[in-house]
Amino acid sequence: MESSFPLYRYWSDYPKRDVEYVRWYPPTMQAVDGETILEALGRGPEAAAFYLHIPFCKDVCPYCPFNKYRMRDDRAKAFMDGVFREIDLVAAQRHKRGTKTSGGYFGGGTPTAMETPDLLRLIEHTLERLPPERGSEVTMEANPDTVDLEKLRQLRASGINRISFGVQSFRPEFLKILGRTHGVDGAVKAIELARQAGFDNIAIDLIYRVPGQTVPLWEADLRKALELGVDHISTYCLFLDPGTRLYNETLMGHVAAYPPESEEVAMYQATQQVLGAAGFVHYTINDFARRMGRRSEHHLMNWQAPQRSYAGMGPGAFSYTEGDESFIYCTIHSLQEYLDVLKEGRLPVRLANRLTPDERRSRYMVMGLRCLSVSKAGFRRRFGQEMTDVFGPPIEQLKEWGLLDEDGEQVFMTERGRHFASNVLKAFYTPANRGKPQAIGVELLAGKGLSLVSVGGQQRTETGT
Fold it and tell me: Where, if anywhere, are coiled coils annotated (predicted)?
């Protein structure tokens, strides 16, 4: 069977539509010593959030590109010992600088796959060492079949004030294709239980362009989410990342035909129409909030210009630190190697990019336009230059193509530009980063793969099963 889905096309110039998901920038990274990053944290900003990657799942979904392992008690115990050390290393450097914690995010993986006592102990340790400022957002990712009412109540009491469920679909046939371990009733119940547990900020993820999906079926998923009263909906087109099981199964012709690109475009348009009619705010390429106060602070910190610093911890976490020197870096993906380095008292970082001035300006635009617009005055304040003096040619070219527009205050994606979002973002890449793919977690774990051409220094091979 021949797949209708384009397999790993990580760079396409307009008028071809680029479909790679731009998660971070710059994509290029080189080997670095963890001590260099620790020193940078000690000179870092006055405020920074944290992201804690908990790399365990009840099962491994076939489409997921992130660093993860099947949950096992021995792995969880070893991880807890290691990540406590990493949290302490990061907190010590931040305390030297007096850095305040502006928010937090526990992601994965599936954090709630951990046993409740272990998870609560991890939350307590993290929030004690990196206490968030009053009123800041602290999110926990969860799968519907890894929570019950008591667990949710305990999470809420521990300091988690936002929960995000990986629902992905309200159709059983699509949950099966996506390898999800919960059912439709389980997803509905988890959302209802979260309300009972005291959560007033509930987010869900949904996936479209699943094999066999149609526009009406996708619209039904969106309407079901609205019916359940969730506060935030992230909508993701199914992208086949190399190294994932679904990619390999599709390559071998074992997966039913995917909806064509025209259907994907129609699904994205339907998303904007259905959620827009319900009053939801469309504030990033993929994200919709019931109101402005329900936008994800984690997304805004990562992407909205000017982007803010955050410290990623846990195996495979990415970080960004803004200061006299700006770094993007990631922790070691291999769980065993991550633990070995921490036992030696060192920060488990091997890959980083010390951004050049050009890359800092470029990142401001690449990440900023994920939030659909970038302020000209904000750019001027940050860099002391006019945006159009630095990026005049790509702005004019994107305007000519109908993908970007501007007024006196900002540049912003057009309706057409949102369908070519990755083309728009990549127009602001520096020459050294053009044509370079985003390194994919499962391939960083394996230390080999198609996505690692822009990464220097390989990871040691280790299975995530």
Answer: none
Nearest one of 364, 359, 374 to 413, comparing CA atoms: 374
Alpha-carbon distance of 421 to 404, in angstroms, equals: 10
The domain tally of the chain equals: 2
Q: In this predicted model, what pLDDT tens digit does every residue of 418-449 receive, in sequence order?
A: 999 999 999 999 999 999 999 888 889 888 88
Q: Are residues 196 and 173 in the same domain?
A: yes
- As to burial, measured by CB atoms within 10 angstroms (0-12 exposed, 13-18 middle, 19+ buried), residue 340 is middle
What are the φ and ψ backbone dihedral angles of 453, each rounded to 5 degrees?
A: -65, -20
CA distance 372 to 282: 9
Amino acid type, 291: R
Who contacts 455 (Cβ-Cβ below 8 Å, separation ≥6)?
28, 29, 30, 351, 439, 444
User: Taking the model in full, what pTM does it have?
Assistant: 0.95
Is 459 among the domain residues? Answer: no
CB atoms within 10 A of CB 149: 14
For residue 422, what is the domain's CATH number? 1.10.10.920
Instruction: Kindly give, in sequence order, each residue whose CB lies less than 8 Å from that of residue 351, ignoring residues fewer than 6 positions away.
Output: 29, 30, 31, 32, 329, 330, 444, 455, 456, 457
* Alpha carbon distance 413, 367 (integer Å): 13
Same domain, 176 and 294: yes
Q: Counting Cβ atoms within 10 Å, is residue 128 exposed (0-12), middle (13-18) or buried (19+)?
A: exposed
Q: Where are the alpha helices (DSSP H) in 178-317?
A: 184-196, 215-227, 245-251, 261-277, 297-303
Helix then strand count (H, E) for the chain reads 17, 18
Q: How distant, in Å, are the alpha carbons of 32, 49, 348 from that of 35?
A: 9, 20, 9
Structural domain boundaries, residue 397: 1-18+357-434
- Cα separation, 74 vs 60, in Å, equals 18
Phi, psi for residue 194 in degrees, rounded to 5: -60, -40
Rounded Cα–Cα distance for residues 349 and 337 (Å): 10
Tens-place pLDDT, residues 28-52 = 999 999 999 999 888 888 899 999 9
